[in-house]
Amino acid sequence: MALTPVSSSNVDSVGTSGKDLRVIFRNGGVYDYIGAAKELRTMLAARSKGVYLHWLIKGVYPYKRVAQLAQLADGRTKAQTPAPKRDRIKGSKRNPKGSAATTRGGIEIDAATEKALRNKVEDLKGKRRVDIGTLKAVYRRGAGAFSTSHRPGMTRNQWSMGRVNAFLKLLKTGQRKKAYTTDLDLLPKSHPQSTRQSEDTVKPLPSMRRAAKWALEQRAAAPPSKRAGTPVGIARARDLVAGRPMSVETLKRVRDFVNRSASTADAQPPRDEAGDVPKAKQALGLWGARRGKSVAEWAARQVRRLESKK
User: Fold this and answer.
1) Coil, helix or strand at residue 38
2) Which residues of the chain have pLDDT under 70?
3) pLDDT digits 0-9 by tens, 104-129
4) Phi, psi (degrees; rounded to nearest 5) at 118
5) C-beta neighbour count of 246 within 10 angstroms
6) I need a labelling partner for 166 at 20 to 30 A (CA). Which of 5, 94, 118, 278 fits?
7) Which residues are paired to 68 by β-bridges?
8) How far is the C-alpha of 112 from the C-alpha of 107, rounded, in Å?
9) What CA–CA distance (Å, rounded) separates 159 from 157?
């Protein structure tokens, strides 16, 4: 893994670690942004590496803190300590490979553990509820992960139950460590961080994702006085770039914004005399459109389709 030193007040050097983008900050922090290796070339070419990182990497890609520089000798945190040989168990006669892939149940665990998980299900209130099959799947995944690495001194049961507790915290509060993405597929479809697309949501078009990324890049390259976008618009662009599913309400907002803004944006030149993209075009891009009202028309069709199912 080769690291490239950069000129930045915040970032020391960047490189790739497999499919991840590795960033070493000047304070010594080392972070991997999951799946962001493809951003390296564009980031190196950006006018401001820190601005590019802030607007186009953070919030779009999940990350994990690898270490401080003093810890890079082995590249691991305590929680990533390789499991000793006695803990490296492969497969299970009771629970075959793939048994924790869904929430359908069928996973066999001891009576005491199942009782503890059932108590956790009973303690859940309101809309944020899951069944025992879901918690069994999370627990089983934790047990499997224990065979690869875990914090020294912990038992397999403790490690697995800790994963269950992390899942329940995410379920109830939406809070999680950025690196914890392995159980998002077990969240209810209605949960905002679920990777299972709900029947009443729709994923953005590839062209919308490209437009949003373009707008964020142009915004980052422009001087502060020429940057468009409210916090809501910037958040929308990040969601589009990440490909997050859109609800009916979000589609309506996209429809209305593009209908209001497209004419003004289309009337502007591609760039001003200084070479910067006009604010109106940046703002339109943040909502997934480069020109015209075709995105608004598409969003309107999706709204009608989804509402007709109710």
Assistant:
1) helix
2) 1, 68-83, 91-106, 125-128, 197-199, 310
3) 556 888 899 889 999 998 888 665 67
4) -65, -35
5) 22
6) 94
7) 29
8) 14
9) 5
Query: What span, in angstroms and rounded, lies between the C-alpha atoms of 27 and 114?
Result: 45
C-alpha distance from residue 169 to each of 124, 162, 163, 174, 187 (Å): 11, 11, 10, 7, 12
Beta bridge partners of 33: 21, 63
Q: Could you tell me if 57 and 39 are in contact, meaning their C-beta atoms sit under 8 angstroms apart?
A: yes
Distance CA 202, CA 204 (A): 7
DSSP labels, 69-104: GGGTTTT--GGGPBPPGGG-----SSS-TTTTSSSS
Amino acid letter, 135? L
With b meaning 16 or more CB within 10 Å and e meaning fewer, what string describes 175-188? Answer: ebeebeeebbebbb
Phi, psi at residue 13, to the nearest 5°?
-160, 160
Torsions phi, psi of 214, nearest 5? -60, -45
Q: State the pLDDT at residue 74.
A: 44
Q: Exposed, middle or buried, 256 (CB in 10 Å: 0-12/13-18/19+)?
A: middle
Tell me the two tokens of residue 67. 């270490």
User: Which pLDDT score is estimated for 291?
Assistant: 93
Tokens linked to 218: 């142009």
C-alpha atoms less than 13 angstroms from C-alpha of 32 in its C-beta half-sphere: 16
